[in-house]
Amino acid sequence: MMPDKKYFVLFPLLLLLFYNCGNNSAAKQTGTNDTNITIAMFGDQGTTDNSKKVLQMVKSEGAELLIINGDFDYKNDPKAWQQMNETILGKNFPIVAVAGNHDMPSWQEYQTIVAQWEKHPGLSCRGIPGVETTCVYKGITIVSTTPGLFNDMNHTQYIDNALFGKTGWKICSWHKNMAAMQTGGKGDATGWGVYEACRKNGALITTGHEHAYARTFLLSDIEHQTIADFNQSDMTIEKGKTVVVLSGLGGISSRPLIHDGAWWANKQNDNTGATAGAFFCTFRIAGHPEVAECYFKDIYKGILDRFTLRLSQ
Ligand SMILES: [Fe+2]
After folding, report:
1. Which position among 59, 88, 112, 152 has the lowest Cβ density within 10 Å, counted as fewest Cβ atoms?
2. φ and ψ of 29, to 5 deg
3. What is the CATH number of the domain that holds 150?
4. What is the pLDDT of residue 118?
C-alpha cells in the first residue's frame, strides 16, 4: 500500500527543520530578531580549500554581508576569485571589497568586479570602488580605503569627511597595517592618521595583510596604544575610543606570532592553532541598535574570541 500523500510533504519539511537546528550559529543563538545584521570580515583570502570553507562558514553563520579586507586570490585570476565567491555565497550576496597589495597587478579587472558588487540593491556606495569607498548597508556605514597602497590620496581626510556627522555603526576597512597593529612581521605601512581618524569618529577598525587574527582592548590612542578599558568582553565604542581587529585568516595561510603587545585582548595565529576563519559581528542584537555581539570563528576550532560591542553616540 502506498504511504499517505501527506508524508511526502512532511518528510522534507522535517529534514529541513533538522538541518537548520544542526546549523545553529552564535549569531542565531543570540536572537532571531529580524533586525539582527551579521557581517563577516576578513582579508587574505586565496582560493584554497580553507578559503572555500571560510566562505561556507560565512553562509552557515547567517551573515548577510561580507567585507573583504584585501589580498583576494594571490593568483591574479579575477574571474576565478569572483566565481569562487559567487558560487559559494550566491550571485546576489552583497560584498564590499578593498584592494590589497597582491591585487595590484590585475587591479583594473578586480575593480570591475568590486564595482559590480557595490551595485547590489542593498548597498548604497559612493567613491572609487575598492580604493576609497563609502558604502551604507541597512544604516551601517563602511568606509574602505587603501593607505600604504594608493599613496597619492589623502585617506585620513577621506575618512574624516566620510564619517563626519554619521550616526549608527561605522566600520573602517583597509588592508595594510602599522607594525604595532599586527602580530607578525609586517612593518609600518599606513601611517597612524587613518587609525586615529576612525577612532576619533567612533568607527570599528578592521584590517588584513598579516595572516592572523588579533583584536585590541578599547583604545583611546591607537598610535601610543593607550588602553581605555581592560574589560575584554564588553566594550563601548564612542568618538575617541575604538577597537582594532586584524582579520587576515581568510584562507591563504596562518602565520606565527612575532610582534606581540600588551594592547591585544585576543590573538589567534599559527601558534594557537588557528588555521582560517572570519570575524563576525551581529549588530542590533534583539532589537537593540546600540549592541553588537562579535566573534572570531576558526573553520576547524570554532569560536576563539567573543565580545560585546556597544555604541555610544
Ligand atoms: Fe597583503
Report:
1. 152
2. -70, -25
3. 3.60.21.10
4. 98
Predicted confidence (pLDDT) per residue in 150-209, tens digit: 999 999 999 999 999 999 999 999 999 999 999 999 999 999 999 999 999 999 999 999
Residue 202 lies in a domain: yes
Give the C-alpha distances (Å, rounded to integers) separating 177 from 134, 222, 258, 282.
20, 12, 15, 25
Report how far ligand 1's centroid is from the alpha carbon of 5 (Å).
57
| 176 Cα to the center of ligand 1, angstroms | 6
pLDDT tops 60 at residue 33: no
pTM: 0.89
310: left (phi over 0), alpha (psi -120 to 50) or beta: beta
Task: State the total domains in the chain.
Answer: 1
Is 30 contained in some domain?
no
In a domain, 13, yes or no: no
Query: How far is it, in rounded angstroms, from Cα 16 to Cα 7?
Result: 14
3 C-alpha to ligand 1 centroid (Å)? 59
Cα 71 to ligand 1 centroid, rounded to whole Å? 5
* Domain assignment of residue 111, given as a range: 38-311
Does 16 have pLDDT greater than 50?
no
In a domain, residue 2? The reply is no
DSSP element (H, E) containing 304 = strand 302-311
Distance 187 CA to ligand 1 centre (A): 11
In whole angstroms, give the CA distance from residue 190 to residue 207: 11
DSSP states along 209-276: SSSSEEEE-EEEETTTTEEEE--SSEEEEBTTBB-EEEE--SSS------S--TTEEEEESGGGT--S
Mean per-residue pLDDT for 212-232?
A: 98
Mean pLDDT for the chain overall: 91
For residue 8, is pLDDT > 50?
A: no
**Position of cell 602580530?**
183
